[in-house]
Design a protein that fits this description.
There is one protein chain. A six-stranded parallel sheet has the order 10-9-8-11-12-13, sandwiched between helices. A five-stranded parallel sheet has the order 4-2-1-6-5. It has helices spanning about 10, 20-35, 85, 95-115, 140-145, 150-160, 195-205, 220, 240-245, 255-260, and strands at about 5, 40-45, 55, 60, 70-75, 125, 145, 165-170, 210-215, 230-235, 250, 270-275, 295-300. Helix content is about 35%, strand content about 20%. It has two domains: about 5-140; about 150-300, Rossmann fold, CATH 3.40.50.11350. Helix 6 (about 150-160) packs across helix 9 (about 240-245). It is α/β, with parallel strands linked by helices.
Length: about 300
């Protein structure tokens, strides 16, 4: 049986942030690809993914990097400056529409690879694979991956109401999102208050006596929007937060890959911002395929 390897550098990247959402997307695409082509997925132990996941017997786990050629390398929709351009502080200009169109073609290539003919050899993949159709169905996820039971129990002990039918996870990404990708977007990609106000109205029409579990790196911004509601404020590490959002049956998502991956499964009500990163600019979706199949979109009107 041929093997498909996770990208060692992707899995172990820990610059500034945990990059947890991007790593989970990479991991999930690996499992989906392996499942559809009946190949053995290879992962590495020792990364921060180990704080959340365990693997079933179909997954091979390595402790050291193995030198394997790439079978697929993602062509990102976001252009990156080369070394000389960075030294000269030359900015790469892209419009929102340019990025959205490139994101669409990026998705097509990754979808074709997912279902097309693969190289007849072992290989490694590189990419984030941020599109709903590229993610595994729950049955495929569950075939290869387990949430660590100790972490599940820790979350349920600390937040016993997290998976109640009237509990709603609310995620807001502030911080670096106020300046992230501002060379492309005219407005900040941090979601504006109106998104959460509209989401709150929609939720209260569907759920009686709602309890809002708040997750954010900027609580001073998000909490005032829920001042008249029953809230539970989470101040844990990224791993507990990811599992808490995963366990919640309802979610008001942000446009971060962290929340996006934690919200893929187990959701009765899922609310997302139209256009993802592009919610505030209102031009085109970035990334293409941001909206989950079962989600309701909030428009920025």
């Amino acid at each position: 049986m041929y093997k498909i390897y996770a990208d060692y550098n992707r899995v172990f990247s820990n610059q500034l942030h945990t990059h947890l959402g991007n790593k989970v997307q990479h991991l999930f695409y690996l499992m989906n690809l392996s499942f559809h082509h009946k190949r053995r997925p290879i992962v590495y132990s020792g990364s921060n993914l180990d704080n959340i996941f365990e693997y079933r017997q179909d997954v091979e786990i390595l402790t050291e990097e193995k030198n394997i050629d790439f079978g697929f390398i993602e062509e990102s929709a976001f252009l990156e400056a080369n070394r000389l351009q960075k030294m000269l502080n030359i900015k790469i200009k892209q419009s929102v529409m340019d990025v959205s169109v490139k994101s669409y073609y990026q998705y097509l290539k990754e979808l074709n690879f997912l279902y097309g003919k693969l190289p007849e050899r072992d290989f490694m993949i590189r990419g984030h694979f941020w599109h709903y159709d590229l993610m595994p169905k729950y049955e495929v996820f569950n075939k290869y991956i387990l949430i660590k039971n100790s972490l599940l129990q820790q979350v349920k002990f600390k937040y016993p109401s997290i998976d109640d039918i009237n509990s709603i996870a609310v995620h807001y990404r502030g911080g670096d999102f106020h300046t992230h990708k501002r060379d492309i977007f005219k407005k900040s990609i941090a979601l504006n208050p109106e998104y959460y106000k509209k989401s709150l109205i929609k939720i209260k029409k569907k759920i009686s006596s709602p309890v809002f579990h708040i997750f954010s790196d900027e609580l001073d911004t998000i909490l005032p929007l829920f001042k008249d509601e029953e809230t539970v404020v989470h101040k844990d590490d990224a791993f507990m937060d990811w599992v808490s959002i995963y366990l919640s049956k309802n979610v008001i998502q942000s446009n971060s890959s962290f929340c996006w991956t934690a919200s893929l499964y187990n959701k009765k009500i899922s609310i997302q911002p139209e256009y993802g990163y592009g919610f505030n600019d209102r031009i085109a979706p970035v990334p293409f395929g941001f909206i989950h199949a079962n989600s309701e979109e909030i428009k920025n009107e």
